[in-house]
Amino acid sequence: MSTQPDFSPELTNDGSYTFFSEEFGEWFHSRGGAYDEAKLTFVAATHLPEKAKRDKIYLLDICYGLGYNTAAALETIWRINPDCRVYLMGLEINPAVPVSAIAHNLVAGWSPDIRRILAMLATDHQVKCDRLEARLLIGDAREKIQSVIQMNFQADSIFLDPFSPLRCPSLWTVEFLQQLATCLSPDGHLATYSCAAAARTALQFAGLTIGSTQAIGRQWPGTVASFTEYDLSSLSQQEQEHLRTRAAIPYRDPNLNASDQEIVQRRQQEQIESDFEPASRWRKRWASKQPVL
Ligand SMILES: C[S@@+](CC[C@H](N)C(=O)[O-])C[C@H]1O[C@@H](n2cnc3c(N)ncnc32)[C@H](O)[C@@H]1O
Hints:
The chain is of the alpha/beta class. The chain has one domain: 3-Layer(aba) Sandwich (Rossmann fold), CATH 3.40.50.150. About 35% of the residues lie in helices and about 20% in strands. It has 11 helices and 12 strands. It has helices at about 35-45, 50, 70-80, 95-105, 110-125, 140-150, 175-180, 195-205, 235-240, 260-275, 280-285, and strands at about 10, 15-20, 20, 25, 55-60, 85-90, 125-130, 130-140, 155-160, 185-190, 210-215, 220-225. An 8-stranded mixed beta sheet has the order 7-8-6-5-9-10-12-11, sandwiched between helices. It has a two-stranded antiparallel ribbon with strand order 1-2. A hairpin with an 8-residue loop joins strand 11 (about 210-215) and strand 12. Helix 1 packs across helix 3 (about 70-80), helix 4 (about 95-105) packs across helix 5 and helix 6 (about 140-150) runs parallel beside helix 7. The relative contact order is 0.12. The structure holds S-adenosylmethionine. S-adenosylmethionine binds near residues 28, 66 and 140.
């Protein structure tokens, strides 16, 4: 766990703030706009505006962090259907992150109702009111997801928002994504900001079909996954070829308890033994053709 004493707010291009993680060496959100990323890369990509017309919605927020994806989801759903009942499970390893977001008032851009919910989740790790039942499970998502599975929680939308596969490989493995697929309803969607080939093939190995999304504030697309092809935008030729390179060899964690180093080493060994094309050759082939992932 991080020894970072506090997180310092950093402005992003839409006027909202994010944090930098010294432990993972990455920003918590796209510098192009933290709130915009939550609204578009996660909420719009999982078709929540259409789903909001239902009586109830189940949300699974993997790597809850500052709570922006949850906030954007609740705000979107209740703007469209104020009576929609929402069941939310958030998973987060570091309880200091949501607390710090509230302490720095980084949630000021959300509506008063949503701000109250985020504050309660940060301190009490649960909220129960007439239209929301929410829990924030603190711990390694690989372990906490087991409780979600035991509850038979079937999410309409899953937000997959760990740090990048290079920095946090344990949350991008085939085995972890299989656990998430178990929690996805038959017509649900999982969205992530990443288009890493290893993440995409891991989603496919987990039994999901993948499509591209427009990831906000980044130069590359995001990914949406579901059990059917219906309403997924298909991958470009360039993206499909990326999935036939060594970069697409997924991370593995058979017992869901390996260290990041073990997970990375296992994949490197598989890459060495692979007869797939190196990703550098694919990149070179597409460099002249635009756009480059
Ligand atoms: C990119 S940030 C997520 C941002 C967040 N979704 C938001 O809207 O603010 C990644 C988060 O993953 C958390 N994290 C890192 N490793 C984790 C693990 N093994 N299990 C659960 N959460 C983890 C970090 O503490 C951090 O809050």
